[in-house]
Design goal:
single chain; FAD/NAD(P)-binding domain; about 500 residues; binds flavin-adenine dinucleotide; 13 helices; 7-stranded mixed β-sheet; alpha+beta
Length: about 500
Amino acid sequence: MIPISRRELLKLAGVTAVGAALGSDKNAEAAETPKPQNFSFNGAQIPTLFRADVCVVGGGPAGTAAAVTAARNGARVVLIEQGTVLGGLQTQGLVYPAMPTRVLNTDTPYITDLNRRFAMHGIYVDFVDDEKYKNGGDARQYTPELLAFIYDELCADYKVEVLYNATLIGTNTAGGKISAAIIHTVEGLRKIEANIFIDGTGDATLSRFSGVKFAHGNEHTGRNQKMSLRFEMGGVEEMKVYKFFVKKLKDGWCESKPPEFEFAKTTHTEKFYFEGIQRGEVTKDDVAYIQAFTILGKPGTMSMNCPEVSPYLYSSTSALDRSKAIQQCRIMIRRLAHFFRKNIPGFKNAYISREASMLGVRESWRIHGKYYMTKDDYFNAQKFPDAVCRSAYPIDIHDEVLDVHRTLAKGEFYEIPYRALVTNEISNLIVVGRCISTDFPAQAAVRIQPTCMSMGEAAGIAAAYGLKNGIAVNAIDWTSIQNRSYVSAG
Ligand SMILES: Cc1cc2nc3c(=O)[nH]c(=O)nc-3n(C[C@H](O)[C@H](O)[C@H](O)COP(=O)(O)OP(=O)(O)OC[C@H]3O[C@@H](n4cnc5c(N)ncnc54)[C@H](O)[C@@H]3O)c2cc1C
């Protein structure tokens, strides 16, 4: 079980400047409307590689759920992924574990299927016996390697055509419709033609290339959330680590117990990290945010939710900054690994076993869709007739000086409307995952993996429904779809 109070604690230190961090009054001014990027390449014909009913770009948790669900509902689907694995930040980014929605019964049919498949491999992701956390309320722990395998299995089962090592570089867009995605492949530039397109890139790349209005960063400060490059350490003796933090450092906030537990930098353990800075073993930036989890199904390995880089120095919407951030994080990872080995019993023989192959971008660009969700929707626990999923996960903003962690009252939850997934500009586009139509603070709540997966699932159903009924996806009345089972799976 993920100790919720601990995660909350991690952010409490920064709540003083909450107002500025949460402000989003300047939304309208901050938005930009790009021109569609139609590629002519001096009139050269780009060959068509594939024709599909639905083309999903980006195989993260949201895009994969969309592709699998559309295919499951009868559509011919192609899924474009620039990496060599599905799962996005879950697998390439080593982001573990999936955080809880904190709402009972939010496990949608797709998530239930995923959990069932994990159980077949001996990993029980819904292992919490506490009723209040059942079926979506608590964290799902998806081991990156097994998840990658299961995503391939799901795509094979439902006949999703997956195109790995294929990067979207533009679109053919005219008359408010995308007709083709232009991708870079090993064969050269190729076209993917489809009736419906789903943007699961996390960065709203397909939407931006198609002329959809977007915004990025905090509306007041302009800063994006902090980025991280995650890593894993093997050779860890977990019980020794646990004893050190709980018994020696008296880290009373560590509610979790082996084999599933975490340690983190909190007010209780701050001194431990501060002394490392004084000895010159780590820098202040290296230990600005520290969190480590044991991994279900990978004994002796811990997943590190660090290091983070300053959003003053590195913006997630700058290509150069992203590259520099990766280089900087690699240096920090080595210092942290050394510090852990030297100072944490149980890490003596530990080594860096994996480094993420994808930078941990929490937030970059967000679209302005038919409905623009704001922090007020979050705090009002807003419900919508066209809700596609619900959550009570906190607004969780990682920032240099404005860290914010704001929760709803116990028992409250908010919903995400289908209209936040579709746009005014493009009739055959659905957007899913962390780049849907929200302001900066609301994005910091909707971005967790289960919510991204549920949005993807909804998009897959809507795409298949639109196809069958000849309705443009941005004109679908979500309430008229019969099998929209996700909001209340139980
Ligand atoms: C450091 C960090 C820690 C986090 N911690 C947690 C946590 O503990 N629990 C939790 O639930 N959530 C956590 N999150 C949030 C969560 O992991 C993400 O918000 C979520 O993965 C977003 O899903 P997505 O599908 O929208 O995008 P992503 O996971 O970003 O996936 C996007 C996919 O699109 C592909 N893509 C992008 N551009 C292109 C292109 N041009 N062509 C082809 N493919 C492309 C990418 O390769 C990737 O596979 C964390 C995020 C970060 C960064």
